[in-house]
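writing this on my phone so excuse typos. first protein, seq and then structure
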Amino acid sequence: MNDRVVVAGAVYDQGRMLAARRSAPPELAGRWELPGGKLEPGETGEQALVRELREELGVETEPLERIPGEWPLAPGYVLRVWTARLVSGVPAPLQDHDELRWLGPGESDAVDWLDQDRPAVAEAMRRLPTGTAVTGTDSAEVAPDRDAPTGPLSDGARH
């Protein structure tokens, strides 16, 4: 298989999972996804995930485990998803996104997921850890973008 790999992260913190709303391209704008991006030559999936989450959200993460499966995206691309722990930083929509939300158990239907992300999201929510792991950040917050309201988080072309 010669498909290009796109990695995405189910970023967990304090019993919640991070969702990101696409701002581009127009056909994906307004829909929600697990943040991530394309694997670069010479990178492992885990390395690409850490890099992409740093670039797109301004956070440091630790990949935990790959969710079994591969999901087709645009022709020539497949999606692979890892669970990841937020290590440091406050997530902000820096690239390709205009809003972020933390979703708790049973809240995955609160946003309009991209169709290709739905199976991975369902599995990631099943794996959602319970409890309140301390990460050194106030994860109830997400850094606002220039157009978003300030305050606590309300509940590239990747695809």
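second protein below, same order as before
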Amino acid sequence: MIVISSIIVMAYAGLVMYCARKVSVEQELRAQEKVFEESVHSQKLANKKESLFLEKMRLENETLEIFTLYELTKDITKSLSEQEAFEIFKNTLSRHGTFEECLLVHPLSHEIKDYKKSEDYFVFVLQGEKKKTGYLVIKGLAEANREKFMILGNQFALAFRRVKLYQEIERIAITDSLTEIYTRRYALGRLQEEIRRSKMRGSPLSFLMIDADFFKDFNDTYGHLTGDQILREVGRLIRENIREIDVAGRYGGEEFCVILPDTDREGARFVAERIRQAAEGALVKAYDTQVKVTLSIGVSTYPEDGLHMEELIDKSDWALYRAKKEGRNRVCAFGVYRG
């Protein structure tokens, strides 16, 4: 009995020790699990932190590059030349990405349809205030560089609008609003330039002084609106009968002038006669009637008739006076008529 009791006591004691050990092991296991879980969580946090840090660095680098791009494009917006601004745009883009070809395409070009259809080309629209002013077309641009292209493209679009605005302001400043030919100031400035150029090259230069015959009578009879219409028509006829390199200006009132580079006396007389005949065959509407306008034209030529602007103007004015005196509606050249 005593032996059995001892065995029972020992068994119970062993059971208690087992239970205690089990509890201890379970507690230690839970503690280790907690440590492990915390360790895994910490590692995840560390990985997340590292990922966020790398993303932050990437964004900072991209931001820095964007700011750098904007800094580099200041020269684009400063330029007052379309071609110069475009060259700056291309050079800047080439430093930040590779491409095969970059073109500036006119807004009315039919080729733009083909570029838009092609997967090889990326088309950027240059949008003005009211209408498209052109297109930037680029070939072989990597997808990763498109954002840079858009940034530079927007800067170029601003520069392009600025250039167009400047050109329009300049055009208005040097153009007579009524006749749409150059102002006297601009025309005489060009005459000085052409004289210097003729001296350097040893080439001839001719100057025409043109007057609308009986203009005061038309004004008095039909009014200033008809007078204005006559001046507009004369301006149009002059523009349509000279070359692109020639310069037409409104000298004052009903008088006009034309600069003819690389043109001798005979060539100038031919141009003047063509203008005179065009006017003689034209009719200007005056209320319910039409009036015929004629022109008298005086011609002077460099270097025969003078070496300076004032001399050429004076000689062509003298020839114009002679044309008026001989009956109007005619061309007189100073070297031919000297009175």
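The mean pLDDT is 81. thats all i got for now
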